[in-house]
Amino acid sequence: MHSRRTFLASSAAMLFLSACGSGGADDAAPAASPIGGDENAAATLTFWAWAENIQRVVDLWNSKNPTQKVTLSGQAASDELIAKFLTAVKAGNAPDILQVEYQSLPTLITNNALQDLTPVIGDVKSAFPDGTWNLTSFGGATYGVPQDVGPMMLFYRADIFEDLGLKVPATWEEFGALAETVRKKDDKRYLTTFSPGDAGWLSGFAQQAGANWWTNEGGAWKVSIDDPATKKMLSFWGELVNSGTLLGDPMYTPQWNSQMNDGTIIAWPSAVWGAGVLAGVAPSSKGKWKMAPLPQWSADERFTGFWGGSSTAVAASSKQQAQAAKFAKWMNTDPEALKVLVEIGLYPSATAGQTSGGLGAAPDYMASQTDYYESAAAIAQTARGFSSWGPNTNVTYGALEDLMPTAVKEKADFAAVATKVQEMSLADLKKQGYEVSGG
Amino acid sequence: MTVNKAAPGRRGTASAPYLMTAPAVALFVVFILVPIGYAIWLSLHAMRVRGAGFGIRTEVFIGLENYLDAFRDSALVEALGNMLVYGLIMVPATMGLALLFALLLDAPRVGGKRYSRITIFLPYAVPGVIASLLWGFIYLPAVSPISAALEAVGLPAADFFGDTSIFFSIANIAVWGSVGFNMVVLYTTLRAIPKELYEAARLDGCTEWQIALQIKIPLLRPALVMTSVFTLIGMLQVFSEPATLRPMTNAITQDWVPLMRVYQQAFVENDVYLGAATSVLLAAATVLLSLGAIGVFRIRTNRSER
Hints:
The complex is a heterodimer of chains A (439) and B (306).
Chain A: H1 2-10, E1 43-49, H2 55-64, E2 68-74, H3 78-91, E3 97-101, H4 105-110, H5 118-121, H6 130-133, E4 137-138, E5 141-142, E6 144-157, H7 158-164, H8 172-185, H9 199-209, E7 214-217, E8 220-223, H10 228-242, H11 254-262, E9 267-271, H12 274-281, E10 289-293, E11 306-314, H13 321-333, H14 335-343, H15 351-355, H16 372-381, H17 393-409, H18 414-432
Parallel strand pairs in A: 1-2, 1-3
Antiparallel strand pairs in A: 3-11, 4-5, 6-9, 6-10, 6-11, 7-8
Helix pairs in contact in A: 9-10, 10-18, 13-14, 17-18
Chain B: H1 2-43, E1 45-50, E2 56-61, H2 65-71, H3 74-106, H4 113-121, H5 128-139, H6 145-152, H7 165-191, H8 195-203, H9 208-236, H10 240-245, H11 258-268, H12 272-305
Antiparallel strand pairs in B: 1-2
Helix pairs in contact in B: 1-12, 2-12, 3-7, 3-9, 4-7, 5-7, 7-9, 9-12, 11-12
InterPro entries (chain A): Bact_solute-bd_prot1, SBP, TAT_signal
Signal peptide (chain A): 1-25
Protein name (chain A): Sugar ABC transporter substrate-binding protein
């Protein structure tokens, strides 16, 4: 074991992920390939991002930094962006700066597509909560500046809850009972829909339940997608969906929009950015939605998970890395930039962004809930993520998004999907040549 | 004089064909042969990890391993099955309707020809993805005008995303989009048939029905062969309709048809190498099937011509 450590430390290209908590200072930190250049030199940078209206932040930067022009290229979101970026890296025309969802970072890192930013971004570390900073750090090396986070919470139609005499559920048990009550009181309505094709949403629930899908122990990966917490969570949804108490239809379809708008669906477990989505899909129920903490697995717990959230990373192939890193830091820590991030509907990762003036007033759409951001900040404190994302999160998500809709269609055992995904994920790790520990 | 004239003439005839085909050959090499070669090269490689922990993936040569994986891929077999069921609905429906419309438009004493021709052809101008989104709206129960109409008259709402109906729903989009093109090809061929043949047939006492069956359809054979091959290839390449509808329903998996499986391998799992291997296999199957189809039709046509 010791000799392996030495070997790792000596290999400049090698990354080493310290296992959660156990990673001591002696863990081999990768010898960072130097990040070149003067961060104040003139530059022309390209930036791939999908966040809506992020052009406004770019405009602000360009007005202040006339010699370092950033050009935004709006891109398809998340998975497709990763595929596109990796292809661009292969083709030699990748952008300098990139918006990356946290769970996609490992895929890019292992493809050697991202620049290790550790030497140049240490000075902004204190601007972020430790937990959030860890989302972009792997084995002591930091590959991106956290941009926004998505702590999960429950949105519900306050007006319909009141009409039907419903109480906001504090536990998942109450949530299940409430789903049945809704069906009994008004058979046109459902409490919510279980959208089976959204792995990010499901992993958020798993995080809340206490799952830890990936851990790295001494260089070997331990995968536990079929752990009791995940199975408990999936079985819970499975019973409600298979009995017809909840819908099992996907979110983000024209049908879902219409059902969210007309009150067929009266609650939505989502994340802090959900208010912005609601404003888009259900404009006619403005001011009627309220937000509460996600129901808990036991009455004395206070936990939530993350759904979504992204970081700003710099391409390994960029010739202007220092300037690109400067932009990434500025966008996610500068008070003025943070203010614009909030205005365009993001919930910044930076501590200042979650407390500063911009967040004071509730979003227009949630007008009936004046303390929206204070509640959100309190909920954000209780969020817990996985200790690490696996190097094949994309394959795992793909498997989940393939098997779960079929399970819903066939009214099958949802927990069995976790077992199957576990097998597929492990098999893929082994095939790619990763060391795997345990089962 | 004559010698002088002949010499450059001969040189000209020797190099001219090469010069004239050069652009086509260059385009063929750059845009067909090189990409195919690259796909084959990719299919023999894979990203594998060096070392522990996160590791860095590097490209290594793995021989035929990807092909073995593709052959053993049960998801691909299932996808092929789905494609065949879809094809069994789509190909006959497209060809049958295209032929029917072409014959109707060509029949004498049919009114509104120009209007009908454009109406039937118009869907072909709608891109497949847009068409799928439009039909998605019509299929989704909560926003479907068809479901609303059925409910208004007290009938149960149709389920367009059921285990069986899904095949018809997807095939319907493709048929809607491609009938017009095939119809125009067939109709144009029909217009080129000499009118004297019909006159002669009528003098012999043929009805319009008999003219269609005994004269028009046999003379349409070459055009029918061509449009059938196009439609078959369209079946093998089915992608945008199910891929666009997938987010709307649980009935379509990410690997519902072969090309979706390739897309999943290459862009969801980020394994372009396995995706390339599957593509090469599918391309080989497509070429064989097309050649086979043309061969079968040719034999039939030749026989009937004799």
